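Forwarding these from the shared drive since the link keeps breaking.
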Amino acid sequence: MEMNSHTHGGRRPGSGRKKGAPNKATAEIKEIARTYTVQAVKELARLATKAKSEAARVAAIRELLDRGYGKATQPITGDPESPLETPQRIVVQVVDPKDRRAAGSEDRP
């Protein structure tokens, strides 16, 4: 089936937002949030030392360290006795449902 460039819908070359470009709403929200950076870090520091709950202190400390040094890497591990299998081949078959000779059609009445 050939695509007509004048049809409605679907992806067309050169259309849409360029890859990696944030949409306007996302850019505006990030800009507003960044105005609170200093205040937010100060509040995290306060919570890390003065929060009554140990869970709140730990969470604040973790956030501060993540912001300052980046999140710790998470190794990907698995069960050596049962490793994940990687597909060797993926087959895609497009058939016309009207074509009785298509694969699997012998099962239909």
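-- next protein --
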Amino acid sequence: MELSNLIPHIEALIFASDKPLTVDEMTELINNAFGFMEDKILPEQISVALEGIVEKYNSEFYPFSVRESGGGWQFLTKKEYHKTVAQLNGEKFLKRLSAAALETLAIIAYKQPITKGEIEIIRGVSSDYTVQKLLEKDLIIISGRNEQLPGHPLVYATSKSFMDYFGINSQEDLPKIKEVLADMVIEPTIVNHTDFEQSETLAITDDGELIDADAASYEPHINGQSVEEGDNMDVNEKDDVNEDNDNNDFIEKATATGEDESDNTDVNDDNEVDDDIDSSEDNAATDEEPE
């Protein structure tokens, strides 16, 4: 069969199929349709025809294209017409996976085949509900049992719907972990030399703190004596003690002054008493004199 005659049959198969078609499936279907032909269609002919079909629908004239997605070939609407087509299946397009579902699905995709127990060990939480929802959405399948573990638990893997959902053809098409981490590289902080023009020499303490070297070299003194690191009291405590000593000296001086003033008051009082006695004696003597 000529290539020009083969292309329309391939386009019709892809368009009418409700699932992605592989090259082998299309080869079998076309050979069954033309069983009377002596020369059978080969997979290589289908592949060459698909290259021409892809180039044809990649032009701007068509709102859709033919792509290999989900493990096979299918017609897909171009992204420029997403908003228009989304109105037909709004609820379908609005349904999104939760964060827990995406996390579980990513673990299964990269670690498949994997048991539910292994998933829970990685996540650190129970995954019964999430795994059940992914099974209902046909994003994962039960691929068998792990015969090496006790109880032979079920093992899970991604489905063709998963590949179709994310636009990939096989597990090898998943983004590499290194590529994902490369996009998350933290850019270094840009430091200008002017930020340190007025800075002084710095030093690091035993506790790992960054302080001024001049402040670190300062050695506090109390009463002309240096304060050692092993002292039980810090500088502020010793200053408080000195202030208390000064207050005590002041109180002692004030007390001594008060005692002196009290002594002086007593002397004055004695002198006043003596004067009163002398005055009384003089008045008595005056009264005894004859007229």
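Strands lie at 64-69, 72-77, 114-115, 140-145, 154-158, 202-204, 210-212, 221-222, 225-226. The longest helix spans residues 235-288.

- D.
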